[in-house]
Write a structure and sequence with these properties.
The complex is a heterodimer of chains A (about 290) and B (about 180). Chain A has about 290 residues and is α+β, with helices and mostly antiparallel strands. In chain A, about 70% of the residues lie in helices and about 5% in strands. Chain A contains 11 helices and 4 strands, in the order αααββββαααααααα. In chain A, strand 3 and strand 4 form a beta hairpin. The longest helix of chain A has 28 residues, at about 225-250. Chain B has 7 helices and no strands. By secondary structure, chain B is mainly alpha-helical. The longest helix of chain B has about 35 residues, at about 150-185. At the A-B interface, strand 4, helix 4, helix 5 and helix 8 of A face helix 7 of B.
């Protein structure tokens, strides 16, 4: 609203200033018009400019960046926690502030609503981070419980769904979630994609399934329902694809390490002269047959 | 004698006229209209934001200005989550005169709809806010020519919830800051 009024003031000021130039004969009128134009210009600039942002020390931002580049979560106490909501930390907007496990806001929003208390708050956070250097991640138990809860919920909704293709896709979703659950025990590193799955994608899918089952009970065979079924089919396919990608991303690091180890072994063998350079697959197969 | 005969004749003529189809139809119509009048009056009152005639008289003949339902700030209480704040805001909403009738029905419909979907947004209430903004935009686009009292109430109900969601963020942020200060002390 302020910006809109500011823009109007700026436009009016320009018009008045230009029109004052054409009132060459009447000096007092020219001066008055010009004066009003300049006042409107000052008002417009004042309204349009962004409010001054709270200045945060670079050292503070560096310390927070250093912590969240290695860890995903920091629990200040039993109630308050700070959770990295993206894959990599870029700025304070990427950190969610949780109160009793539920998101309240992002960390930078404290600067918008409580600017005077923002800098002391960050200083306090830094002090706490320095006292607790141990990396914090979401506990395995919490993780496994979440996946099981979602699998049970999706199975519940699936019972009420008559459409075979949607039902089959949902069975696939549950199977993929169970697979993810099992892999979590071997690869417990939780990344931001996984967090998004459990905190955004799966809850949204459950909401869609609930609305669909409710509508299915009341409006059978309606056009709206058929359109919704089509959208639901697509959504479930996308979620399945996302779960597959997240599953493979769990052991991305291990895959890279394995590839690197294999390359190192080959290089060492070549260096020691135990194998010929540029040995191809056919030669290798021939050696193995011997 | 002849005058009396004429008088009775005229009465007979009068009743004969009454019994004619056209006239009896007109009488029926008039009676039906009179029967429907209370419903029409009730409908008109509800469209204006009143539940009954008494409220209408109170509203039209007082200088006191009434306002839409507002989110009442609860400063003396801590909330465990933003959802709890919003749930609290949605209960015991007060409707002043001129904001009752169909407006109140629409407003309460919006609030009960939000209450039913609120559990799905326990973790991140801002997603519910985005959903409501889209819904408000859709309603405004569909009813850009004019809204009836019910639709107006529904729209204001959605806006009421948006304000509650916004206030919940501010209140919980204040709680977090207080707790951090206490911990530091």
């Amino acid at each position: 609203m302020k910006k809109a009024i500011g823009m109007i003031c700026l436009i009016l000021s320009i018009i008045l200033c230009i029109s004052s130039l054409f009132l060459g004969n009447t000096l007092p009128l020219m001066a008055m018009t010009g004066g009003i134009g300049i006042c409107l210009l000052i008002c417009g600039i004042f309204l349009v400019r962004n409010k001054s942002k709270v200045k945060i020390k670079k050292a503070v931002l560096k310390k927070i960046a250093a912590y969240f580049s290695e860890s995903q979560k920091f629990a200040l106490n039993d109630n308050i926690a700070f959770l990295l909501s993206k894959d990599h930390y870029q700025n304070l907007e990427d950190i969610d502030v949780l109160y009793k496990g539920n998101k309240v806001c992002t960390l930078n929003e404290f600067g918008d609503y409580y600017p005077e208390e923002y800098a002391p708050m960050l200083d306090q956070l830094i002090d706490s981070l320095q006292k607790k250097p141990v990396k914090e991640t979401i506990s395995e138990e919490e993780n496994q419980d979440i996946l099981t809860q979602f699998t049970d919920k999706i199975n519940e909704y699936n019972i009420a769904i008559v459409d075979e293709s949607i039902s089959n896709d949902l069975y696939k979703t549950c199977a993929l979630l169970k697979q993810l659950h099992v892999l979590q025990t071997h690869y417990p590193k939780i990344n931001a994609k996984y967090t998004k799955l459990t905190e955004y994608y799966l809850p949204i899918l459950c909401e869609i399934l609930e609305n669909y089952t409710r509508l299915n009970r009341t409006q059978k065979n309606s056009e709206e329902l058929l359109q919704l079924e089509e959208k639901l089919r697509k959504s479930v396919l996308l979620i399945n694809e996302a779960i597959k990608n997240i599953t493979s991303s769990l052991f991305e690091e291990e895959k890279m390490n394995l590839n690197a180890d294999m390359s190192v072994l080959e290089t060492l063998l070549k260096k020691d002269g135990l194998i010929e350079d540029e040995m191809n697959l056919e030669q290798l197969n021939a050696m193995m047959k011997e | 004698m002849s005058d009396k005969k004429d008088f009775f004749d005229s009465i007979d003529d009068f009743f004969t006229q009454l019994n004619e189809k056209e006239v009896s139809e007109k009488i029926h119509k008039g009676v039906n209209t009179l029967n429907k009048m209370p419903d029409k009056v009730n409908d008109a009152l509800k469209n204006k934001g009143y539940d009954n005639i008494k409220e209408f008289l109170q509203g039209e003949f007082t200088d006191k200005k009434t306002q839409r339902p507002t989110v009442r700030p609860k400063r003396l209480r801590d909330f465990p989550s933003r959802t709890a704040f919003v749930e609290d805001a949605l209960t015991n909403v007060q409707y002043e005169i001129k904001y009752r009738g169909y407006y109140k029905e629409g407003h309460q419909q919006a609030l009960s709809y939000v209450k039913s979907i609120l559990p799905q947004y326990t973790y991140d209430l801002d997603r519910l806010g985005k959903r409501l903004k889209l819904e408000i935009k859709e309603i405004r686009q569909t009813h850009h020519k004019g809204k009836d009292a019910y639709t107006n109430g529904y729209l204001n109900g959605c806006e009421f919830v948006l304000k509650a969601i916004h206030q919940s963020k501010i209140v919980l942020m204040r709680q977090i800051l207080t707790e951090m200060n206490m911990q530091n002390a």
